[in-house]
Amino acid sequence: MIGAVPVAVSALLALASAVDSHAQEPAQKARQLSAEGVLEEVLVTARRREEIMQTTPIAVSAFNALALEYRGVTSLDEIERYVPNLTLQNNPGYTASSNVSTIYIRGVGQKDHLATVEPGVGLYLDGVYIARSLGAVLDVIDVEQIEVLRGPQGTLFGRNTIGGAISVNTVRPQIGGDFGGELGLAVGSDDRLNLKGALEVPLGDSLAIRASLASLEQDGYVTRQSDGADLGNEDTLTGRFALAWMPTESLSVDINADYSQMKTNAAAFELLGIDFTDLSQFNGLVASVPPPMVFIHNVTFAATAPGVPCAVTDVAGNGITSNPDSPNCMDERYLLDRGRSAATEIEDPELDVWGVAGTVAWDFSDSMTFKSITGWRELDSLEGQDGDISPHRIAHWTVEMEQEQFTQEFQLLGSHADWNWILGAYYFKEEGTDRNTLDFTVSNFLSGGAFDNESMALFAQATWDISDILHLTVGGRYTDEEKKFHPDQYILKNYFQGFSELVPPDHPLAALDAFFLQEGYRILPDLEKKIDVSEFTPMASLSWDVSDDVMIYGSYSEGFKSGGFTQRVFPPAVPGITVPAGLSGTDLIPTFDPEFVDAYELGLKSTFLEGRARLNAALFYSDYEDMQVQAFNSVAPVTKNVGAASIQGAELEMQLAPGEGWLIDVMGAWLDAKYDEIDSNTTLIDEGNAFERVPEWAANLGLSKEWLSSYGQWIARVDWSYRDEVYNDAYNTEIMKTDSYQLWDARLQWVSDSEDWTVIASGRNLSDEDYLVTGVWGLAFQTYTGVYNRGREYSLEVRWQF
């Protein structure tokens, strides 16, 4: 089938050429090219002011609404293949939600959804920071532009942008524009049914509003055997509202509101393998040896349950031999064919997210502007997950999170003579609860607690035009933040209560009846712990305009990612038994420190062939200290500061318009990441391990053709992308490795002469590539689980513009 894809692609492009030969005239609305066939200028706000991308000394990728449409991008994670050194996945991890963002830029990011852990890449919607990864895989509905800034953005964007930042800006109503809108219907594979609508209404000469609404539905692609539910499905209702008001020529007010409700049948997890390793080998290497849940299940509950018992051979955990005639055993019988899951239904996920942003801009002189950006966001999430993917109760959990946040930013932008500058103040407040119920073989307990985070910052950045061709930019940000965590964690039920009275005192399982594992015993003290962090993050860059079309720049920047609290704790923290003697009070609540980076970058931005070609490239090196990585501590992975690391890489982006209506896009990325120092004794991570979710090589090649014929306007596009192999955890677990893969996508779009009607036929993953999107290793519950990609997809979309 792979070999047939280039043939199909060639046929599509041949069709484009054939039809083009009968074209009446060049495309008058060559959407990414000007009427002269040169590349359109790209504007970005990477430095918090509108600038031409080719004169901005930052590695930034930008996609306006047309570029997103040409690529068929409907969800934020789909831009991954077009941006160098970006990993952006919808990764459920230790949740069951089908909307959890995992974002890495240049090897730095975060995959955990916990509220006590911070992301490494900042995500902004209409200028407002989105603090949590749940619900952050935004649907690309009424989006004007997406910008991806690579490298630390600690000065202008602030906290938790150590890897970079992604800025999503929605469509602004046009004041003085026309009444209009559109309706769209899309159908496709797996019973996809998408309904979309937008309406824009001008209200006089100074006010306009816009509203959009979308219903997105698609069946899942993994069947849960117990009830026939399709896992990995989509059922989303999302809407946006925007208001633009300009009472005077110098004052503008923009209000943007969004709401999304997502309901699914749980993420499409499948069982990859079962680890029957003797876990005693980990003794002394982790804080406490995790109880091997599958083994305990088989030698206790499965061995004594009614009916045929589950046979075992070794009480130490080695050489488990299950009885195929026993329905009670947990073993390889649940390693089913692709697309089938033996999981138990726990709690179907439901996620509600909404927010409102207000931006006020006042040009109080010809050279100075005051801007205020205010944001309020809330999320409410509940989901359950079967971590063992079997009918047995070995690792079940529910995740319930409620979060609300308020942000306020003030900016003062100005210019004078050879200077332009920005001064700013920022405030962030977040609070909520993140509670998890975990029902394991040995115990049922409550984890999580309440969190309260507050951050304040002052920042400044200025650019001095030393000469007509030399420009120096310096800046810095001072951040002060306070984080609080109040754990609410205790044992709900001990399934081995009284077991110590039935077996000899030295029996390996007698410890499961310990006093600190009894109902009501607190895992962490019922106290609030606080950590404070104050950091200054500077930056400097120097750019040289070699010519009108070529710029070279070099930059240095620093960044940091906040520390936090360890909320996944089991067994309970008992001084002298499970934790060192002498600890008490809040000292029993574990924390981890911030991580820091010094980043160096050398870049090139160029335009040539009389505006028909654009090439941007960057080389970078980053030096990390106290790097945060997920490591195991008993039953689940927790964030730890593992040591020092260095990352280097190269990036290339090119666009070429070789002929009338033709456009070629090229992206290439190389990344080399390694640990320089690591505490292997307490993390089990080897210094030679590869970074998780970071491919060494990635590439994309896109070819599109626009033409005008007697049938209307046509746009054809084909994309090929490649990603190198990656590991899905820091331990480089082989069974959870994602092998390298290639993807082919194609799209044909027709627009009527009147521009009232649009029809789009598209295909994604045409070669039906099968690869692992994410993997989860449950050290204690001895299972490897993962989510594969959805296979080949086709869709047909019809839109009516009015």
TrEMBL record:
UniProt entry tagged with the keyword Magnesium: no
Keyword Lyase: no
Signal peptide boundaries: 1-23
Localization terms from the record: Cell outer membrane
Keywords: Cell outer membrane, Ion transport, Iron, Iron transport, Membrane, Receptor, Signal, TonB box, Transmembrane, Transmembrane beta strand, Transport
Gene Ontology CC annotations of this record: cell outer membrane
Record-level GO BP terms: iron ion transport
Domain TonB-dependent receptor-like beta-barrel: 350-766
Domain TonB-dependent receptor plug intervals: 54-165
Domain of life from the UniProt record: Bacteria
Membrane-related topology note: Multi-pass membrane protein
Similarity comment: family membership: Belongs to the TonB-dependent receptor family.
Listed name of the protein: TonB-dependent receptor
Annotated organism of origin: Halioglobus maricola
